[in-house]
Amino acid sequence: MWSDIRKALVVTRREVKDQFRDWRIIAPIIILTVFFPGLMNFTAQQAVGFVAKYGAPIIADRLIPFLLMVVGFFPISVSLVIALESFVGEKERRSIEPLLSSPLTDVQLYLGKLMAVIFPPLLASFLGISVYLVGVFRQVGWVPDATLLFQVVALAAVQSLVMVSGAVVISSQTTSVRAANLLASFIIIPMALLLVGESMIMFWARYQVLWWAIIGQVIIAWLLIRTGIAHFNREELLGRELDTLNLRWAWSVFKEAFLGESGSALHWWRLNVWSVVRDLKWSILLVLIISIGAVLVGSTQAEIFTLPTEVLDWDNLDEGLVTGVENIGPIHFFSVGGMGMILFHNLRAVLIDSLLGIFSFGVLGIIALILPFGIIGYFIAITGQIGLSPWSFLLGFILPHGIVEIPAIIIAGALIVRMGLTLVTPQENHTIGEAWIRTLADWARLICFLVLPLLVVAAFLEVFITPRAALAMFGG
Amino acid sequence: MILTENLTKYFKDLRAVDGVDLHVRAGEVLALLGPNGAGKTTTVRMLTTVLRPSDGTARVAGCDVLENPGKVRSSVGVLTEDHGLYDRMHIEEYLDFFGQIYDMPAIERQQRIQYLLSRFGLLDARNRRIGKFSKGMRQKLSLARSLLHSPPVLLLDEPTSAMDPASARLVRNAIKTLRSEDRAIIVCTHNLAEAEELADKIAIIRNGKIIANGSAAELKEQLLGPGEYKVQLVEPLDSKELPLPDGLVVTQKGLDWFSYRAPDARKTNPQILHKLITAGYQVVKMEEVQRSLESVYLQAVNHVPVKEDPDVE
């Protein structure tokens, strides 16, 4: 590990030296480090004076820490530009081949480049924060709370890490700086939204929430770095000359992977569906554990968010249940239409969660998928609170269809995890695009030939059997 | 030192290198010749482990390129088609950077850098940024980088292409010295005179396939047929039939000379000489007609059939 870092630092030192010889990088860093904090000092001073006149000092109290975060962020925006051209820029300047032919390992080369694009802007960011703090202390005597200062410094560092690690992934996977710049929107837009969110937190002075922002970004940065290293490919970097959208090739890879090996229907299903489920065993276990965790978390929330008694008419539970079961909103129980509605809802949930998973290494998809488990946990606890048996609730409302639906959802969740893992796992002999298309084909095959049939059965049970079970248990 | 067997590279359905077999021993120079896009650079990139072979095997300095790519890269010095220099750096700084990458101790690095700068006449330019260098200087610096860690294997792509004649001579002499130091060297070049001067073996590649492989003399024999010899006489040739061995074909005739092809010169030439002298002819000289590597190359790339004709890069 130390040897890796030592070699990586050789690359880092060279790159940093090179950056400091380029006035196009130095000039904005100096401006953003010295001039911009000065401007923010002036803004803070004017704002404090202005709001003091109208008896609203709280605005100034919030504005000064907010500007502290802003002066920390601005210099690191430069890191995005440098990072975007870290690999592809060298490729365009045709200086990358001797590096690729050298004994440097992928990790050493990647980390070296990554550190090189983080250090100078981060240093500038810390300098900017220092300049601002000195200025604001001299002007209005404000000194930040140590925890807040640490949070702002940590935020600058993790934001820089997230942007840079994302940009280096882009840089190592594109064929031109132009393409990398175009793809930078995928970093700029989420970061802008994040910054808006952080600004809101700063103005609300809910500083403890910043810890979550820091932890979340550390996880994302780690995932992005893993993705970058996993898919770093000397051959692709050097050999690929054109970014072309080859739909015919993508379709042929998808079709081949989707159809899998041929044979009789049963043989095909075993080979191409069941064997994939077996391969998913660890992902399934992970989703199962997370789901159980969600049930437990949901049940604890029942203590905090109790339902008002008027919402649940426990005295007339049987009457309410009968009318409710007959027609709950658009779902018509005991009808094929109702079954279709439930199937549509469940399938839509799986598709949306998968889509969310694609853009978040699987994380958002899994969170969305396990929310219902949290709700189940919550209602189990509520049932207990009003003196009914939680087991009866489970047997009456959940298990009749859940026995089929829950495995389907767990498998769908495992597929989402797998999509996320594909991005962060090295793929021998496959490009990132090819590996991802193959994973998508596995996802489509399992959804079509396992999850969908299970959801059809679950929808049937939910419409025709669960209401009867619920009525039998609670209808009197 | 370098051994490839059935080395093949596909780029999707494009066969860039097709079953290449090469063997370069320590102290040998192999010149890899071929038209642009024939597969020379792809072959070299597989030997430097930058590209993964699709099929076949390659061993460099005793290590398999797939199983031990790190060791292979440590054992190889590569002069790439693009020189791969950093314009804002000074030359010593640049070489020192690569020396660190190759794990050379600081003192050894400095000694080696000074030696190479002196050898390639770059000492005077040590305070200039690389961006200010001429093409030839850039190429010399790039070559110095590839020799920095004294690798046992050298893969040199167009080592003298941008150089003036004096610099090119300097580099060719350097390559000869390196060969004498028992290094295995592959030189990709379009300069056929250079190939003939430097190479112990020549491989001609076309459409990803090796279509001719051997020493310059072997290739001439193989591709241009038996050697041609010219005999110069004192007197003019008269109408009398020349006293030549049976089956020997005279290819050209002049006033006082003639030429012929001899499949087995060691046997045929003394016979011819003997017969001419016996018949009273006075021979001024007997010499082999020089055949250039260019004609060998053109014969190979234009006329040697390739079994399959795949798409190449």
Question: Topology of this protein?
Answer:
The complex is a heterodimer of chains A (476) and B (313).
Chain A (H helix, E strand, L loop, with lengths): L1 H19 L2 H31 L3 H28 L3 H5 L4 H4 L5 H35 L5 H28 L3 H7 L1 H20 L4 H22 L3 H6 L7 H13 L5 H15 L1 H24 L12 H10 L9 H23 L4 H23 L4 H35 L7 H33 L1 H9 L2
Chain B lengths: L1 E10 L2 E11 L4 E5 L6 H8 L7 E6 L2 E2 L4 H7 E4 L11 H11 L4 H14 L15 H13 L5 E5 L7 H16 L3 E5 L3 H7 L2 E6 L2 E6 L1 H9 L2 E7 L16 E4 L3 E6 L2 H14 L4 E6 L4 H11 L10
Could you characterize what this model shows?
The complex is a heterodimer of chains A (476) and B (313). Chain A is mostly helical. Chain A has 2 domains: 2-239, no CATH class; 247-474, no CATH class. Chain A is built from 20 helices and no strands. The model of chain A has no long low-confidence stretch (mean pLDDT 83). Chain B is of the alpha/beta class and 313 residues long. Chain B folds into 2 domains: 2-214, P-loop containing nucleotide triphosphate hydrolases (Rossmann fold), CATH 3.40.50; 226-288, 2-Layer Sandwich (Alpha-Beta Plaits). In chain B, the strands form 3 sheets. A 6-stranded mixed beta sheet of chain B has the order 6-7-8-3-9-10, sandwiched between helices. A 4-stranded antiparallel beta sheet of chain B has the order 2-1-4-5, with helices on one face. The radius of gyration of chain B is 24 Å and the shape is elongated. Chain B starts with a strand and ends in a 10-residue tail after the last helix. The relative contact order of chain B is 0.15. Chains A and B meet through helix 1, helix 5 and helix 11 of A and helix 2 and helix 3 of B.
Can you give keywords for this protein?
heterodimer, A: 476 residues, mainly alpha, flat, B: 313 residues, alpha/beta, Rossmann fold, Alpha-Beta Plaits, 6-stranded mixed sheet, disordered C terminus
Summarize the structure.
The complex is a heterodimer of chains A (476) and B (313). Chain A has 476 residues and is mainly α.
